[in-house]
Amino acid sequence: MKNLTGSSIKDLENVALNYGQAAFRGHQIYNWIYNYRNKKKNIDQIEVLPLEFRKKLKEDGFKLSELSFQEKNLAYDGTLKLLLSTSDNESIECVGIPTEKRLTACLSSQVGCPMDCKFCATGKEGLKRSLKASEILDQILFIENEMNRKVTNIVFMGMGEPLLNIDELLFSIRSINEDFKISQRRITVSTVAVPKMINTLSAKSFQILSKCQFTLAISLHASNQKIREMIIPSAKNYNIKNIIEDCKQFVKDTGRRVSFEYLMLSGVNDKLVHANELSNLLKGFQCHVNLIQYNQIDEVEFKRASMKNLQLFQSKLFNNGIAVSFRKSRGLDKNAACGQLRQNSKK
Ligand code: SF4
């Protein structure tokens, strides 16, 4: 199967030329995919193309989409979570998070995830496979079609560890930037951190995209190595201090800021002693800490930290000179946590 979503204008011109068509037929396919996003995902319906050409493309296995709609969950605040099926009958989640001025798409990069973070529903299922760039991009089109507006911002914070699928991640970022016309500065790549891959990310980004202007968000979630290993078992291969050093190098190489995501877990990492420890870890590093409320899931002992602890933690970081903000959880109805809709659908 050859999915045309994710193809550049040059690629599509070449497809047209290979079938003895004029190059502008490639432009017509390009416009259909990227500029008329509410249209049907079927080659038959690109009626501006000659019938014979459409037939040939279909016979040769070309498609405009490999995903299909499975289920959706609309929260009281307008956040929309979609469950989509892949062509090999796996399920992936993506989320549209609207505000007045923005529509942020939270995308998955893998089916399942091998990182096994103890607080995460996706991690419980293990990794099935990585997604192709076309499958990553298709999630944007599904969100736009369901929400009837254009996506303005992208966060790779859905299912999977993006740095374990780095080539497809960067191919999708090329298309998001050039075809979907969303600036790299509006894209955030979130990772729990994989040894050596932060450096690889910036190097490959310069190589494939000739720039690296997206934001890197590290899911740190701990103020020391011991706590981190307890909640993220894969962290034992990558010391928290080495992560900070690699992030400093990323900032030097790219000129972009790094943010640290910190999930507030009651009794685990939410005390003032942890806030002081985190401040010491990040002292002198121009970065930003994002405190996040936890969405509780079944079969996991972690609980959401109290608002009081969250506010005290935030004030402590602020007074210690650390740039900090608090991200309120969106879509706090059922199935709000990453991987939860998929898990419940399987049940
Ligand atoms: S939090 Fe992210 S990296 Fe960790 S298991 Fe879940 S999806 Fe994977």
What attributes does this structure have?
347 residues, two-stranded parallel ribbon, ten-stranded mixed beta sheet, 14 strands, alpha/beta, DNA polymerase, domain 1, 11 helices, binds iron/sulfur cluster, single chain, 2 domains, 36% helix, TIM Barrel
Condensed summary:
With 347 residues, the chain is of the alpha/beta class. It has eleven helices and 14 strands. It has a ten-stranded mixed beta sheet, with helices on both faces.
Tell me about this structure.
By secondary structure, the chain is of the alpha/beta class. It contains eleven helices and 14 strands. The protein folds into two domains: 62 residues, DNA polymerase, domain 1 (Orthogonal Bundle); 279 residues, TIM Barrel. It has a ten-stranded mixed β-sheet with strand order 3-4-5-6-9-10-11-12-13-14, with helices on both faces. Strands 1-2 form a two-stranded parallel ribbon. Helix 5 links the parallel strand 9 and strand 10. Helix 4 packs across helix 5 and helix 9 runs parallel beside helix 10. The mean pLDDT is 93. Bound molecules: iron/sulfur cluster (SF4).
The helix content, as a percent range, equals: 25-40%
β-strand number: 14
Principal-axes geometry comes out as globular
Small molecules bound in the structure, each named once: iron/sulfur cluster
What is the fold's blueprint, element by element?
Elements: E1 2-3, H1 9-18, H2 24-35, H3 51-59, E2 62-63, E3 68-74, E4 80-85, E5 91-98, E6 103-106, E7 110-112, E8 127-130, H4 133-147, E9 153-156, H5 166-178, E10 187-191, H6 197-209, E11 215-219, H7 225-231, H8 240-254, E12 258-264, H9 272-282, E13 287-293, H10 307-319, E14 324-327, H11 340-346
Parallel strand pairs: 1-2, 6-9, 9-10, 10-11, 11-12, 12-13, 13-14
Antiparallel strand pairs: 3-4, 4-5, 5-6, 7-8
The structure holds iron/sulfur cluster.
